[in-house]
Amino acid sequence: MTEQQSTSRGSTGTAITTLRRGGGVVPGAVLSGPLRAVALQWLDPGQGAEITAEGTEHALYVTGGDGQAAAPGTEVPLAEGTALALPLGTATILTAGSEGLEYFHAVLAVPAAALEGEHHDRHH
């Protein structure tokens, strides 16, 4: 569903969206801060999703179900109420458990200076 179909605007310029019905939202049309996208995501039992923080950062909050997050050298169990932050240059693989996994996913822009630093670190 597109943003226009899922988002309505009040007279104050406020955007109101039902994430459970409308999928994601691109807040850049309303907000001037770093938030670039928000969505409620669902993984079926056993399904996985890789989230990579290249050029953006990510914040995840588990809203239902269970599963795990895996990154090199670590695995973390996921349950309702668990939050994950993926800073620039990191990645994780989410895998849904027997109940499936529902999570709120926010994508944040990274300041240009931080992106330049990451590029410099990778090439030196």
Molecular structure report:
With 124 residues, the chain is α+β, with helices and mostly antiparallel strands. It has two domains: 1-32, no CATH class; 37-122, Jelly Rolls (Sandwich), CATH 2.60.120. Helices cover 15% and strands 52% of the residues. It is built from three helices and eight strands. Strands 3, 4, 5, 6, 7 and 8 form a six-stranded antiparallel beta sheet that branches. A two-stranded antiparallel sheet has the order 1-2. It is flat. The model is unreliable at 1-6 (pLDDT under 50).
Overall geometric form:
flat
End-to-end Cα distance: 43 Å
Assign the CATH superfamily of the largest domain. Answer: Jelly Rolls
What profile does the largest beta sheet have? 6 strands, antiparallel
User: Any guess at the CATH architecture of the largest domain?
Assistant: Sandwich
H/E element order: HEEHEEEEEEH
| Integer count of domains | 2
Q: How much strand content do the residues show?
A: over 45%
Structural class: alpha+beta
Tally of separate helices: 3
Helix content: 10-25%
* Total count of strands: 8
The poorly predicted ranges are: 1-6
Q: Using only CA atoms, what is the Rg?
A: 16 Å
The CATH C-level class name of the largest domain: Mainly Beta
Keywords:
alpha+beta, 124 residues, 52% strand, Jelly Rolls, single chain, two-stranded antiparallel ribbon, disordered N terminus
